[in-house]
């Protein structure tokens, strides 16, 4: 049965959405095309009608995951316009976010994997990281902070590192302590 162009475009978006979540949960190499396409409700044969390669999908899924993450930051900030940075910190460095394997931060979930991928995947992550830094820089500038670029880098690296470390440990008390320490450090860095 032939698929219409509209349906093909919808299928492509479905595959990208599913891949963005499954890659975050399992890593780029942690799921094969057959299982990924099955999760998207399509056959493996349909994959090659939509994408040139798995890396092509990895690029698109990375962009989608990073856009989703930026959107979640915006949503958190909109809920607390008086302290948008505090809202993002509270959301990002929370136990709930720590537990979000499929919808959590793609930088945390896929950072090490992305470093081993081709230049196109790295470019998608670079663009996403720059977008995160820009948002943080704006929030810092709104609080009257100077040198917002350097502070934004320090804050992002602290937050990503804290969520990463909190996911690596088994001890829930240690995980919570890592996140709490990061909250304190990030707030101090933003206020300095």
UniProtKB/TrEMBL annotation:
SUPFAM superfamilies: Homeodomain-like (SSF46689), Tetracyclin repressor-like, C-terminal domain (SSF48498)
Pfam families named in the record: TetR_N
DNA-binding region, residue range(s): 32-51
Domain HTH tetR-type: 9-69
Keyword flag DNA-binding: yes
Domain of life the protein comes from: Bacteria
InterPro entries named in the record: Homeodomain-like_sf, HTH_TetR, Tet_transcr_reg_TetR-rel_C_sf
Keywords noted in UniProt: DNA-binding, Transcription, Transcription regulation
Record flagged with keyword Transcription regulation: yes
Gene3D superfamilies: Homeodomain-like (1.10.10.60), Tetracycline Repressor, domain 2 (1.10.357.10)
PROSITE patterns noted in UniProt: HTH_TETR_2 (PS50977)
Protein name: TetR/AcrR family transcriptional repressor of nem operon
High-level lineage: Bacteria, Pseudomonadati, Pseudomonadota, Alphaproteobacteria, Hyphomicrobiales
């Amino acid at each position: 049965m032939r698929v219409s162009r509209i349906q093909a475009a919808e299928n492509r978006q479905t595959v990208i959405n599913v891949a963005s979540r499954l890659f975050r949960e399992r890593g780029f190499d942690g799921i094969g095309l057959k299982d990924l396409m099955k999760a998207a409700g399509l056959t493996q044969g349909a994959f090659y009608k939509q994408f040139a390669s798995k890396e092509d999908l990895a690029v698109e899924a990375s962009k989608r995951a990073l856009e989703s993450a930026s959107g979640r930051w915006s949503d958190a900030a909109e809920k607390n316009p008086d302290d948008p940075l505090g809202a993002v910190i509270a959301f990002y460095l929370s136990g709930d976010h720590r537990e979000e394997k499929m919808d959590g931060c793609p930088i945390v979930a896929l950072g090490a994997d992305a470093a081993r991928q081709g230049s196109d995947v790295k470019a998608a992550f670079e663009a996403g990281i720059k977008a995160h830094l820009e948002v943080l820089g704006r929030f810092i500038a709104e609080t009257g902070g100077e040198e917002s670029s350097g502070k934004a880098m320090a804050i992002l690296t602290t937050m990503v590192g804290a969520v990463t470390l909190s996911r690596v440990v088994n001890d829930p008390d240690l995980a919570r302590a890592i996140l709490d320490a990061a909250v304190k450090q990030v707030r101090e860095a933003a206020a300095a």
